[in-house]
Design goal:
The radius of gyration is 36 Å and the shape is elongated. By secondary structure, it is of the alpha+beta class. The chain starts with 8 loop residues before the first helix and ends with a helix. Strands 5-4-3-8-7-6 form a six-stranded mixed sheet, with helices on one face. Strands 10-11-9-13-12 form a five-stranded mixed sheet, covered by helices on one side.
Length: 539
């Protein structure tokens, strides 16, 4: 057509495409994309302050004696400069952060002696519909000096503790407290204690507050059968303000029965429990006591309250166990739970090749014993016990010659092949005189006795999966084992020092030949470094 220029398709599409419109900022006139506020970013920041309500200057309290910071109301936190712990303390002091979104937080360097801590914060907040503003600012903390409660007591030479829990058990060994130690570590029930000290026949826990002591008592009552008494002692009294300061003492007595103890139940208690026994073995001790009748293969649960109402003592304890060898076994078909009845013919291991003395025993261990196995038991016929423990029973009641307790294994130096370790509490040990007084007359030195008792506890953990389920076991690397002190090495060696010297000649292949139970690797936690050097690095 004349006077009309024909456009190509590409050119026509370019003209028809939508272009983004712009508007002028309502304050400065800068060309911007449309937004609900009709303002550019600079003007929006000048008009709206999303940090309003957040303080820019604060104070933080620091104890120069122990190097801890106050986290209100009363907690004192150990933290280094520019550490995550210190950043947490600083952020918790800020009010108004709940109304904004915290994007980033960090420290800005200052001179350590300036007593100033600069924290850089980046926050976001929606100021208009679909309009989010981000802003960065600095909060300055002034470090003020203040003594913590513990340092105040030290400076005034006042005893720090306000309450003490004295856990006691009237027995001649420490197996219960080894188990309690692991339960405390697993559940963290000891964390509030100012100190833990070994006493004559138990452990003392010291606390800064009475409520912490009551909390520990409640925990102990959930894991062992105990009863307690409370007493208080007036330390100071201000007549003008009518304020008092007391020290509280809680005496916790643990039932004097332990696992594997042989017990003769009082007639009244035996009848109340359905006629079980009266000769029974203690199979488990927790908040209640599990008893098993080795001849009738019956079990019964004895609550702690029922025990303290009719208390009793064992006629024989695990220290009197004798090793027997199984010569013949015939199961009877009776079973209760994990126990099965059997007629077992046994002989003392020390009598083999010397005489032909054998004993036919009815036992509850028919599910685990086989011919040739070793089994620990009580030689009741040659035992010396208190006849008053049998008082009240009929004249027809007679004790069996032998009571089998549990399967055992040949003596080996198990410590060399043990791939796990236990954590330990930081306990202040008692003096040697008190520790010797706790043991029987004529015993070896306290360190050797404690090492042997601890090894027996380690062997119980290896042989009992149910007991092991309540304890944290840690993988022990070879480097960590090499760094362990001599006390740890002794504690992991079974039997007496003479037996250890004999076991040193045992070949490793012979150790693996028996069917000694191994702790599965899946039950072990990550390696725990218990060496003194590692403790020092942790500060």
């Amino acid at each position: 057509m004349d006077g009309v220029e024909q456009l190509s398709a590409e050119e026509a599409g370019a003209f028809s495409s939508t272009t983004l419109a712009t508007i002028a900022c309502c304050l400065c006139g800068t060309s911007i994309e449309p937004n609900p506020s009709n303002m550019c970013v600079n003007c929006l920041r000048a008009q709206v302050d999303i940090t309003e309500g957040i303080p820019k200057e604060l104070s933080i309290y620091y104890c120069r004696n122990c190097g801890r910071y106050l986290q209100p109301p009363r907690a004192w936190i150990a933290a280094e400069l520019e550490s995550p712990e210190l950043l947490t303390v600083c952020l918790k002091r800020l009010k108004g952060l709940s109304r904004v979104k915290l994007v980033d937080a960090g420290f800005r360097w200052t001179e350590p002696h300036s007593r100033r801590i600069h924290v850089r914060l980046t926050i976001q907040k929606e100021v208009f519909a679909r309009t989010i503003l981000q802003q960065e600012f600095i909060v300055v903390y002034t470090v003020l000096y203040q003594q913590c409660d513990a340092c105040k007591r030290d400076a005034a030479k006042i005893e720090a503790w306000q309450a003490v829990v004295q856990a006691r058990q009237k027995v001649d060994h420490k197996r219960t407290f080894y188990y309690l130690e692991q339960l405390l570590l697993k559940h963290g029930a000891h964390q509030d204690a100012l100190g833990i000290k070994e006493a004559g026949d138990g452990i003392d826990f010291y606390f800064a507050n009475r409520s912490h002591a009551v909390k520990l008592l409640a925990f102990l009552g959930d894991v062992v059968p105990l009863r307690h008494k409370a007493s208080e002692h007036l330390v100071t009294h201000d007549a003008h303000s009518n304020t008092y300061n007391y020290k509280y003492s809680f005496s916790a007595e643990i039932a004097p029965v332990c696992r594997d103890d042989l017990v003769v139940l009082p007639p009244k208690l035996s009848n109340a429990m359905g006629g079980i026994g009266p000769l029974v073995l203690v199979a488990r001790v927790s908040a209640s006591i599990l008893l098993v009748d080795p001849t009738a293969v019956r079990t019964a649960e004895l609550p702690a309250a029922a025990f303290w109402k009719t208390p009793f003592s064992p006629i024989m304890t695990s220290r009197a166990l004798t090793e027997y060898t199984v010569l013949d076994i015939e199961t009877t078909g009776e079973a209760t739970g994990r126990f099965a009845a059997a007629e077992v013919t046994v002989a003392r291991s020390s009598d083999l090749g010397v005489n032909d003395s054998t004993v036919l025993v009815r036992s509850h261990l028919g599910h685990v014993l086989h011919v040739g196995d070793l089994v620990s038991g009580y030689d009741v016929r040659s035992a010396i016990y208190n006849d008053s423990l049998l008082a009240g029973h009929k004249a027809s009641f007679e004790l069996p010659d032998v009571v089998l307790v549990r399967k055992t294994y040949p003596r080996r130096n198990r410590a060399r092949s043990r791939k796990w370790r236990l954590a330990r509490l930081a306990v202040e040990m008692a003096d040697d005189d008190a520790r010797v007084a706790r043991g029987a007359a004529g015993v070896r030195d306290p360190a050797t006795r404690d090492a042997e008792q601890r090894e027996l506890f380690l062997q119980e953990l290896e042989q009992d999966a149910e007991l092991r389920s309540n304890v944290n076991l840690y993988r022990a690397d070879s480097s960590i084992l090499g760094a362990a002190g001599p006390a740890d090495t002794e504690a992991m060696t079974d039997a007496t020092p003479g037996d250890v010297a004999h076991d040193a000649a045992v070949d490793v292949d012979d150790e693996d030949a028996d069917d000694y139970p191994e702790v599965p690797l899946e039950e072990l936690l990550e390696a725990l470094d218990l060496s003194p050097a590692a403790d020092g690095d942790d500060g």
